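[job 0412] stage=fold_complex status=start
inputs:
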Amino acid sequence: MATSSHSKGNYNFKIVLLGEGCVGKTSCVLRYVEDTFNDRHITTLQASFLSKKLNIRGKRVNLSIWDTAGQERFHALGPIYYRDANGAILVYDITDQDSFQKVKNWVKELRKMLGSDLNLAIAGNKTDLEKQRRVDVQMAEDYAKAVGAHHFHTSAKQNKGIEELFLDLSQRMINTSDDLARASGGSLGLSSLGGARGNTVTVVDDSQMSREKSGCCGGGSSSVVTGLPVDNNLAASSQ
Amino acid sequence: MADGQTGLHPARASERTRVAPGGPTNAERLNDGAEAGIFAPPPAGLMPRSRPQGPALQPPPPTPGGGSAKLLCRNGCGFFGNPEWHWYCSKCWRAHPQRSLVAPPTTRSSGLTLGPPASPRSRPASAGTSAGGGGSTTRSSGDPRASHSGPKAPSGDLTLRQRLKLTPKSPRSPASATGAPSGPPATFDWRQHLSNLPHIRASTECLSAGQVLASHLRHWVDGKSLAEIWVLIHTLLEKIDASHETTPIDTIASQVQEVYLTLRAKFIQWDVPDDDLSVILEQSEAYLSLATYPLLFCPSSTNDEEKDLRLQNRIRSLNWITTQELRCVIQESSQRVRDLLHDAINDIVALDSQQTPQAKLKSLVTCCKKLIEMLLISNEKAASADEFLPCLIYVCLKANPPRLQSNVNYITRFCIEDNLRMGDGGYYFASLCSALSFIENMDAASVDMDSTDFHNYVTGRSLPPGSWKCTLLMSEGLQVMVQNKRILESLSERQHQALTQTTSLSQQMDNFAQEIHEEVADILRKTAYVIKAPRTVKRLHFPVTSSSTKEPPCSKLVDLPTPTGHQLSLDNFEGCSTQNAIPGIVCQNLQHLSLQEEDDDLM
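[job 0412] stage=fold_complex status=done
writing structure:
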């Protein structure tokens, strides 16, 4: 499904932000793109669509980050936004059990619609309110592991975990995109379309994905354990 | 004529039927079309022949399986289907013709043998091609190829496989067609060719877009490749021109998309930088769309128009919706916000008048930017999707833009796919689609309302209590009045303030003057110097008079000049009496003097 048009080492990725209202989706992405938390800071006109350019190991990566409306009445509109996405960030509020349940629903829906090409990151936001935590850490991380997502503890307020989340997600999207390109014969841009429309490619990707999962991350979800090799690379590249 | 041409075609037809279950017939058909399209006149008049069969090419009615979950794509992919796409989602529907067209080959082959009357129409097109330059040479190279692959079924099968191998990623890519002929033309006169197409009427905008594209291309590409690009675009134009009435619009759309993909691949191959690549692609898109807009926008083969009307009626029935129902937080009372709202409405209405997908998206982006500014003013923080989407829905409801559904469909079909995936245009377009979907499916629950109330409001049986307020809000004159009233109130308030301040100031000034006056008087009272000159003099005289008995001192004093002067000045001092220190000293001196004099007198 993921059609990442890339030419000559440039990647264009679409990331969709999902989660209940008021869990801090917008704050997270604003923190990442603009490094602002304060509401009074009005440099960004808008936070619904943001883009960010990265350089990971010499590869130019353009991220388009699409915010979605979190209210229940807009839930049905999700597919319009997450279609063709390469990655999804599912945000929940650690002080709100319901918001975690919502994440589970999204994961189920995304896996059903977009298959396993989609890279998922689950963010437990508002860790600055640790005292009021309602969502069990172990349970959340176990769940993330079970669905092939990476779990992160973030705080948009204190700027914790957000940079890591996006870097890890970008890295995984690059891997998936490379695997896809390899699977479809390794030639330019046109491959993406074939991949999107044929069912056979999806099957190939399934195995790709599982191989990648077993190969690259021993602990598929726990952010602390997995991070090391990837992070080293990222740190090296960002310098 | 029919015999001469069909000589090679039964074989092709059989080839088609044999391959049919496999699936890629469409690819083959397109390759055929591309080969036949411009370099060689269509050997069998494939497209014109298929014209009478047009209805047969129409997709089959929905399968009964789709009935249960009517909203979902009947391909089971989980996305929402659309009645207009026969309950497929857009992706599946685009992929759909590949499968559905597997069925009709028998009817098509029968059509070939029947020798439809449409074949003469292929003539002008082919004449146009040869006028394009180099057509005659490629014609000879094109025909043998076809006849070569034709007569022997096994070899035909083989070539098909080979072809598929040649283009593994996009099997339907016409790129192979442009590459295959032995001698592509060195130059290509696109104007000439454009004017030869019977249905496409080149507007001035189209010609200038072509000019811009040509100059830009020349910068990046040399002569032969340049001709290749033009041939690629014009093959498509010719195909659309010839068969736009019979080919399902989605087939045309996928052909257009393939041309974009092929172009992209070529430019990447020629090392055109990314930025210029997207510019060139957008220019080709503009050229293509301007040339074909009248044929492909809201075409008669679809029910776009019907959908437009339905949407328009739906929006009209929802005109009572206010910002409150949508929980859209904008301050409609603010003049600036209302100006922006009106501008945004204008922009979204202007979307219809633009003729290329990019320009349409641009209108939408301008509209959305204004909404975001509006939200920024109202909420004083960056607008997230939670606030933005209700706002866009509100604008759609208030604007009721003309032919909105047709426009959305046109953009979906003919916009470069990548631009819908990345960039703000893509995001806002997705938001617009969401807004439309929300409007279509809006029910009582989505606006937190009693279902009977909602029904009554929608059917117009009753009006919601707040509806007049909304109408008033939109009325310009009333708004101005309210605004002016508010300004007047604030003015009178300020005037009042100024008045009170003035009175208090004058009061203060009075008080101050009074205070100063009192203070001065007080000080004067405390320090007033009254010189009782005569008394001191008397006091001084007493001992003198008592001690000197011989002569009266007065007579002596009168004789002396200085004391008189002292006496006089003392009188003066007594007269003015405002100074205290100096006269005191002077007086003392005087007293001293007079005492001395008296003493002198005494001696």
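[job 0412] summary: The helical segments of chain A are 25-34, 78-82, 97-114, 137-146, 162-183, 190-197, 199-216, 223-238.
[job 0412] exit 0
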